[in-house]
Task: inverse folding
């Protein structure tokens, strides 16, 4: 029987964080973000003087197979790394790496009884276990899971910016680059957000699908209704996280009043929380991803449960290169995911040799190699390593 012999945890600082630093709390004082190409120094000032960190997890089996996963450490990689080492590693060492369901539930129990690990801590372990299984089978991971398709259209997901013209220009660029759809992360002020969305629709015309994601908590209920109705007139595909994810009652009222689909559940990331969204009609579309939703195992549970309600599970970008690859394998193994989200214009590239990228027709597809099918860029990782646990 194969067993897990070791779990190595590497913490690396990312000097050029790109999309990893593009969150509302790291925005400029006027609500937007500087354009692509901003200096590392100003990026670091926005994030409190510290560059974000990536946690690289390597799981080694007694069969000599290594599986990998990345953890998001934008608020401190050491915190995530120690959670993996102290809460989860003792639960996995000596176990069969193919017992993913058993190990997923062991991790849930360890977290419940005092672990309190960050939401990004178990995902990389679970992804590494699936990577081992795919390699052992000698087939790409989406085929190992059970493929539904071999490619999926991608949409460009914008950073936070300041002016309507910024979004319009970026959407036109994405359209020119072959993307079939574009999602704004607008500034979070209702009237300005409507202006930004209208500017993008005017720029790209009726043929490009559009979405808006102000990120949870930007609006109160009345604002969300007003913005939603404006986006209906602009023929937007969905409105994402208009309220805080914990406001299930408010989201339920919103879905009943608006025709535009409401996409929610990203931050209430565990599978069990998503059950409540669907049970209460609080989302027309749910979000999940392999970083925040307990790895591939938790993401598949979320997607399959949503499918039973006739609801799409649109996968949330992980802002981690390797985890976006894992997300892609999941997207190809489920039916109820319409698009694949790619950060734009700066993608997540650190640590792997072959980041996810669209083809000339606007689709993304995986490598034909076994498992995750990508090679880690250990030279880049080693240069940025600050700790190995």
Result:
């Amino acid at each position: 029987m194969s067993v897990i012999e070791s779990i190595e945890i590497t913490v690396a600082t990312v000097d050029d964080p790109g999309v990893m630093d593009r969150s509302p709390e790291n925005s400029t004082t006027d609500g937007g973000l500087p354009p692509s190409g901003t200096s590392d120094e100003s990026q670091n000032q926005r994030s409190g003087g510290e560059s974000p960190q990536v946690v690289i997890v390597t799981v080694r089996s007694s069969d000599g197979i290594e599986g990998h996963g990345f953890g998001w450490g934008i608020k401190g990689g050491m915190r995530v790394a120690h959670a993996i080492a102290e809460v989860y590693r003792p639960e996995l060492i000596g176990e069969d790496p193919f017992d993913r369901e058993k190990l997923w539930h062991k991790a849930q129990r360890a977290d419940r009884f005092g672990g309190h690990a960050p939401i990004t801590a178990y995902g990389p372990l679970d992804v590494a276990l699936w990577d081992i299984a795919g390699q052992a089978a000698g087939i790409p991971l989406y085929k190992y899971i059970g493929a539904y398709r071999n490619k999926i259209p991608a949409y460009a997901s914008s950073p936070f910016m300041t002016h309507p013209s910024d979004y319009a220009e970026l959407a036109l660029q994405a359209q020119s680059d072959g993307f079939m759809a574009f999602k704004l992360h607008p500034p979070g002020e209702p009237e300005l957000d409507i202006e930004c969305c209208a500017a993008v629709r005017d720029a790209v015309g009726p043929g490009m699908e559009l979405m808006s994601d102000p990120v949870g908590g930007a609006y109160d209920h009345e604002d969300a209704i007003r913005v939603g109705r404006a986006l209906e007139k602009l023929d937007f595909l969905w409105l994402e996280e208009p309220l805080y994810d914990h406001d299930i009652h408010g989201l339920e009222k919103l879905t009943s009043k608006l025709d535009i689909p409401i996409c929610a559940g990203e931050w209430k990331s565990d599978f069990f929380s998503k059950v409540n969204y669907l049970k209460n009609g609080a989302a027309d579309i749910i979000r999940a991803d392999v970083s925040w939703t307990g790895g591939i195992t938790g993401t598949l549970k979320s997607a399959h449960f949503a499918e039973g309600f006739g609801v799409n599970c649109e996968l949330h970008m992980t802002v981690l290169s390797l985890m976006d690859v894992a997300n892609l394998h999941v997207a190809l193994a489920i039916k109820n995911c319409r698009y694949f989200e790619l950060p734009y214009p700066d993608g997540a590239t650190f640590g792997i040799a072959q980041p996810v990228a669209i083809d000339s027709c606007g689709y993304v597809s995986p490598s034909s190699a076994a498992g995750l099918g990508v090679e880690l860029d250990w030279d880049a990782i080693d240069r940025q390593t600050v700790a190995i646990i």
